[in-house]
Write a structure and sequence with these properties.
Blueprint lengths: L4 E6 L3 H10 L8 E6 L7 H9 L4 E6 L10 H18 L7 E5 L5 H21 L1
Parallel strand pairs: 1-2, 1-3, 3-4
Helix pairs in contact: 1-4, 2-3
């Protein structure tokens, strides 16, 4: 594992929040790689698993807040897929490589940075526990 974090960011919420974080000079881990998606609901389990297969230490799926999804239920579908992916990883004995969903609004750069830092902390604690 290389410490890389793949963040699938909804273009209506998380991506603008990440962009705003950059414009404000807020710092988040350099290992975070942002992938802009039309909706968090478009991120399938296979995308999450592929990111982990390619060496990512963690996957973030960042979507709209509840009740504010531009595609009505995209964030709900994304949350279900994240849970399913986590269940699959646990079933095959791969813990410590988290797949996590966060909901945020486009004007929440601090929440974006907090999510990135939280997942980094989880990765670090997982490595130390080994």
């Amino acid at each position: 594992m290389n410490g890389r974090i793949i963040a699938f960011c909804c273009e209506h919420s998380a991506y603008p929040a990440a962009d705003l974080a950059g414009k404000l000079g807020l710092h988040y881990p350099e290992t975070l790689r942002i992938i802009r998606v039309p909706c968090a609901g478009r991120v399938d389990v296979i995308h999450m698993l592929r990111a982990l297969e390619k060496g990512a230490s963690a996957v973030l799926v960042l979507g709209c807040e509840d009740g504010a999804c531009h595609h009505i239920t995209g964030n709900i579908r994304a949350r279900e897929r994240v849970k399913h992916c986590d269940m699959l990883l646990r079933e095959i004995g791969i813990d410590g490589r988290p797949v996590v969903m966060f909901n945020l609004s486009p004007n929440a750069p601090h929440k974006f940075v907090k999510a990135a830092n939280e997942i980094t902390k989880i990765i670090k604690e997982s490595r130390e526990a080994r």
